[in-house]
User: What shape does this take?
Amino acid sequence: MTKKLAFWIFLAGTISSSALFLWLTLDTHRQVEVLANVDKLSERVVAGKRVFEKYNCNDCHTILGFGGYYAPDLTKVIRRIGEGGVQLIVKMPDKTFAGSRRKMPNQGLSDEEIGRLIAFFTWIGNIDNGDWPPQDSATRLSRKERRIVASTALSPGAAVFKAQGCMHCHALQKRGGTAGPPLDGIARRRSPKEIMHSVVNHADVDQDAAMKPRKDLSGTEVEAVTLFLANLK
Ligand code: HEC
Ligand code: HEC
Assistant: This one.
């Protein structure tokens, strides 16, 4: 190859990749408003962001990957554990994470503040971020918790139980949260139908229940997790 040819190849490469980069950047900026649901950015959402800042949740948690890496990313937290889950955890992290080595402080937020936070999390959770950072709560379980879930059965239901944060509130073999009852041997106490009802529509059973109805779970997920629990004899 002559020097001249190398120069032209270099030049053409540089120009075309710069053009591509510029185009992609502009294209992303054009789509930001749509991807981020800017039209749904209400005052309540902004107030929720203020609460998030006031209590320095960002010291430990990330949102869209920004913040501290001590605790789970909260971008898709509503999808993961529902509004009820967030409410319970922020109200009593000490109870929810009993038995966990990583600690979250109870900062005594009011119900109003938690409501605002939920509005903020709901909005941010609907941003199309191409699932980045990846929201895999499986990696967050301790080694012992993972072993329990794995040993109980490598079933799709165990995976749902793990991924949907059920262990934040329910213990299996003494591992997991204490906000809800332990679920060991639940099949001896409840029929599969009752178990399923508890998962999908808990508020019908008990209006004051801390566990909110999980209407966000798909039919397949509900069936799988019910089957998993209905076999815990
Ligand atoms: C000192 C660090 C720290 C601070 C500050 C903190 N958290 Fe946490 N948080 C944690 C840890 C650690 C966990 C995970 C515990 C575990 O899984 O064992 C957690 C878990 C959570 C979860 C459950 C996440 C999931 O996906 O299951 C939510 C929701 C949450 N925190 C909300 C908040 C909010 C809202 C604030 C601010 C008001 C806050 N946290 C402040 C440490 C913190
Ligand atoms: C935020 C905490 C919380 C989370 C997360 C949670 N639960 Fe619960 N759950 C409870 C509480 C509290 C109860 C006790 C009954 C009540 O609400 O009055 C309960 C009750 C139940 C019961 C009935 C137990 C019995 O003895 O009758 C089942 C089954 C159940 N939960 C399954 C699940 C599954 C499956 C998940 C995950 C998809 C889950 N829960 C997530 C808090 C939670």
Q: What stands out?
A: The chain has a mean pLDDT of 82. The two ends are 74 Å apart (CA to CA). The CA atoms of residues 90 and 106 lie 7 Å apart. Residues 55-57, 59-61, 70-72, 74, 77, 80-81, 86, 89-90, 97, 100, 102, 104-105, 107, 109, 117, 137, 140, 165, 168 surround heme C (ligand 1) (CB under 6 Å).
